[in-house]
Write a structure and sequence with these properties.
Length: 102
Amino acid sequence: MMMMMMMIVIIIIIIIIIINQTLQTKYYATKILNTETDSKCRLCQKFDETIDHILSACPVLAKEQCIIRHDRMCAQLHFNICRDTGVQLGKKNTGMNMCQNQ
């Protein structure tokens, strides 16, 4: 029970950090801390490096990491649905194998 409470507290803290945009991004350093740094994203150099940009809008991450994360989630969902409905999968089509092959 104590572990569950700690996880909930950690999740709440992460949500607060995201909502307040207080993660140490370049945008935060430039606009909030008033440092003399460029606020552009380290990866794409096109947009301000905000939390929203990193999580969902950076074209560099979208090409690679977001697609990999998406494919892994889909593979795991496919595996779980097949397991729950009794569909037999071949050795190379198990959800975990598909996730690890990425």
